[in-house]
Amino acid sequence: MARRATDAGILAMECYFPQRYVPQTALEEADGCAGKYTVGLGQTALAFFDDREDIASVLLTACARLLERYGVPASAIGRLEVGTETLLDKSKSVKTTLMAQLFGAEHSDVEGVSSTNACYGGTAALLNSVAWVESSAWDGRYALVVCGDIAVYAPGPARPTGGGGAVAMLVGPDAPLVMAGPRATHAFEVYDFYKPRGDTEYATVDGKLSQDAYLASVDTCWSRLKAKLGAPAAAEQLGLNGSPADLRAFDYVCMHSPYNKLVQKGFARLLYGTAALGQPSATSVLTLSRRAAVGDFADDATAPRFAGDAQRWAGVPPAKTVGDREAEKCFVGLAKPDFEAKCAPSDTASRQVGNCYTAALYMNLLSLVSAKASSLMGARLLLFSYGSGAVATAFTLIGREPSGGSALALPPASPFTLERIATTAQLAERLTARTCSDLPTLTRALELREERYGQAGYEPSGDVGALAPGTYYLAAVDELHRRTYSRK
After folding, report:
1. How confident is the prediction for the chain on average, in pLDDT?
2. How confident is the model at residue 284 (pLDDT cuts 50, 70, 90)?
3. What is the pLDDT of residues 23-59, one digit of tens each?
4. Is 256 annotated as catalytic?
5. From the candidates 63, 119, 221, 343, which is the catalytic residue?
6. Which residues are involved in binding CoA (predicted)?
7. Do 130 and 171 meet the contact criterion of CB atoms below 8 Å apart?
8. Distances (CA, A) of 315 to 27, 321, 354, 366, 478
9. DSSP E strands: which ranges in 332-487?
10. Does residue 348 sit in helix, strand or coil?
């Protein structure tokens, strides 16, 4: 039995995204709406898959890259947890396909299955895995978390919000990204984005409702987290040391990103702030001398930075401003300096790849680590995860320099560090090395996916030559819907 773990969190990260993309400007030109997708959505490009890749191959490629590049053998993995909403089967977990390709029969003592709740599955998988490492059941091996999705929409205004990709994370003790402090969750019933039909890959979406549910979830999770951060034990654990429990307590923010403009709106809600719902206000636990330092609008609308137009909403319950375009514009503008400093460093991949559903938040986290690397040591990171239907959670990671201990003794020349995550991922280089495609190629690829969905007894016709070296791909589907895979 292994000793109880300390400083559990993310040891290593890798990702996978399609090799081909179409600039959003090409979609704007085709739809006659210049600026709608680049400015209105805040997106740069749309990555896409054809029928040669399914969710199993996408997750396989991400996992294989992590295990190979960090030199982690299959025998070192004691838990494999998957987060995805892109289902191949209504019963069988995709986890077993990953096991068959990467582990083999001799390494079958591996816990975990798949978590599904729209874009929240990756967070559920991560929380489960960290809890396992911290528990009495932990046997000293690593947990491997992989989350990813293929986001596709029917032709029309929603198609530019698609995309896809996967992120794999190694979880264990003595982590460079340790999960610490309280977290806050908001779970509620809403039909904003859901997939009730088994005959199509496309979701049923109420775009306005989904945006409002996302922003309301930011409000609720933020209010609850602030209340919990006000407790002395939580403040001490996160090293707040008398700092106010507001946005200034965090050095960086990573948020779930269906598209970048929604992230900007969500971040602005953090500045707006909210009084805690059904709990003591975070500010109520602050001393009177610190009260004037609180930076949220809902806590102190009289602060100098809120002078001017923002006063129109002084005293207005935050819930009444969700969906208010004038309030939104005002607070997005006020939050812009903080957004550029705290949140923009995390949006590199998501703006160029598109929506990765369960992997979106973690693609943003990897972008942040790639941009800042060792400068994140000692930094507090606020993460917000949202999955339609809906479940949302706000939680904290802290960057640190590992002491050198881990679940297993790997070569000391290759420690798990923030710098190693950044240099191993080579995120900027891989984004640059992709192939820029045209609109007819995108259209044909998505038509292939639509034609093949749910079929049996076929070999995909997508171009294997378009895949990057080392990519897993779907080789065939037999008459009983059993799938086989190959690797380029």
Report:
1. 91
2. very low
3. 999 999 999 999 999 999 999 999 999 999 999 999 9
4. yes
5. 119
6. 210, 261, 265
7. yes
8. 42, 11, 37, 38, 63
9. 380-387, 391-399, 435-436, 472-477, 483-487
10. helix
